[in-house]
């Protein structure tokens, strides 16, 4: 009888242990947070390698493995202009949201894309992070009404203009050229300088230049190698910021609120880490990309002194017109410009 009782006791203990492991496994499975990320950049792009990938890796680390990402690059889940809608509908949990591609939804958030708004990627990125955080003017005016929480932001390095065949000895040489540019702000800048802006996707630029249907592009020097444009661009300008592109990654407010505080903190802290890493990389490598292009034989004209002052005077109406148009639509564009410049000044 005693032997039988001990056997039953051992079975009960083993059974309880098995049940405990089963419950623990179920709890661990439920504890995991899987986030599907829809991106527009190819896997070779520095924004992914030096920014988004570091954000995801750091978030996994800080959450001690609770966060798991399913990553879809290069517009695999949808075109750049559709990512915001796809994220809102639940096709993705996190989406790369580029205001230039959705001006009807985020017109004010393109403020950093206007000429001369900042001098370094880090000062622009830090200003953008400030204004898109809860309480910031861009969050309150645009992302919050759209039902989005901004996770991670970046302003690309200051843009310039490069061409394949047309020598650039002054900014006035841009007149009459057909140049790639994304977004209304950059289109207005080129139009003001007498050029014709052409809207294409990044991968389409190389082919258009080779066919001769495009003379060049408005991009940062660091943005040339990912699309092999450093192989075809022979002339360029430097010394003045012609504009930039705003990059944000966000999820719906509903999805954000469904996450527990530990997961939210991991995502937020990882974003600060990755944004700083990316903008630092952008600033250092933009200079290197310029030197590499020059080493390859490209002729670069430096805009400075009186020419820079004249160009800035010529482009000031671009900002004034952008502000006027949005103010007439009831948008606080003037306040956005003021707060953006104030935030930039703290980081330059």
TrEMBL record:
Gene3D superfamilies: Bacterial extracellular solute-binding protein, family 7
PROSITE patterns hit by this protein: PROKAR_LIPOPROTEIN
Keywords: Signal
Pfam families for the chain: DctP (PF03480)
Keyword Membrane: no
InterPro entries listed in its UniProt record: DctP_fam, TRAP_DctP_sf
Statement: the UniProt record of this protein carries the keyword Protease: no
Protein name: TRAP-type C4-dicarboxylate transport system, substrate-binding protein
Species: Sneathiella litorea
